[in-house]
Design a protein that fits this description.
single chain, 211 residues, mainly alpha
Length: 211
C-alpha cells in the first residue's frame, strides 16, 4: 500500500497538472459552449473513460509496447488527429440551432460520450503521459506495481472529473446565456470547429518522436 506522504505528493502534482487547461479541457469547453452543460459533462466523462483505458494499459505494460514502436505510435496519433479534424469540419459545416442545448442533446448523449472516449483513446500522448508520470510515485516495496498504478490512475481520473467538470459547467453556462443570439451561435460554431481542427493539427504536427 502506498504511504500517505506519497499519495499526498501525487494528489498535489496531479492537481497542479489538472487545473492548467490542456487539450482535454479545450475540447470539453468547446463542446460545452457548443451543446450545453449536459453535453459537456458527458463528453468529459467519455474522455476520462478513455483515460481509464490508458491507465490500464500502463499497468499492464501495453503503453511500453506503443512507445517502443514508432509505426504504432504514428498510426494512433494520425488517426486521432484525423478524427478531431473530421469533428471540426463537420461542426463548421453545421447549421446553427437555436433550441436550448440541454433539450437538443438529450437524444445524442451516447454519441457525445462515444466521441469523448475515442478522442482520448486515439491520443498516444496520453498513453505516454501515464507511462512516464504514474511510475514516479510507485513504491515497489509496498506491493504489486500494477495495483499501485491502477490506484494512482483511478485517483487521477476522479480528480480530473472534478476539475474538468467545473470547466464544463462554467463553459456550458456561458454558452446558455447567449444561445438565442444568432451572431453568437455563428461565432460559437466557428470557435468549436476551429478548436477541434486546431487540436487535430497540433496532434498531427507534434512530431513523430515520442516525447
Amino acid at each position: 500500500m502506498l504511504t500517505l506522504s506519497t499519495l499526498t505528493l501525487f494528489i498535489l502534482a496531479a492537481l497542479a497538472l489538472l487545473i492548467t487547461p490542456g487539450p482535454a479541457v479545450l475540447y470539453v469547453v468547446a463542446r460545452s459552449i457548443d451543446q450545453g452543460r449536459l453535453a459537456g459533462v458527458v463528453s468529459m466523462l467519455g474522455i476520462h473513460v478513455g483515460t481509464l483505458f490508458h491507465v490500464a494499459a500502463a499497468a499492464l505494460g501495453l503503453s511500453a509496447l506503443l512507445m517502443s514502436s514508432a509505426l504504432a505510435f504514428g498510426v494512433v496519433k494520425y488517426l486521432g488527429a484525423a478524427y478531431l479534424i473530421y469533428l471540426g469540419v463537420r461542426k463548421l459545416l453545421a447549421r446553427e440551432e437555436t433550441s436550448q442545448p440541454e433539450v437538443v442533446e438529450r437524444r445524442k448523449l451516447a454519441h457525445v460520450f462515444y466521441q469523448g472516449v475515442v478522442v482520448n483513446l486515439l491520443n498516444p500522448k496520453t498513453a505516454l503521459f501515464f507511462f512516464a508520470f504514474l511510475p514516479q510515485f510507485v513504491e515497489p516495496a509496498k506491493g504489486a506495481v500494477a495495483g499501485q498504478i491502477l490506484l494512482l490512475g483511478f485517483i487521477f481520473v476522479v480528480l480530473g472529473i472534478c476539475s474538468d467538470g467545473l470547466y464544463a459547467l462554467l463553459a456550458g453556462t456561458i454558452g446558455r446565456w447567449f444561445k438565442g443570439n444568432m451572431r453568437f451561435l455563428r461565432a460559437e460554431r466557428y470557435f468549436a470547429g476551429s478548436v477541434y481542427i486546431g487540436l487535430g493539427v497540433a496532434t498531427a504536427l507534434s512530431g513523430s518522436e515520442k516525447k
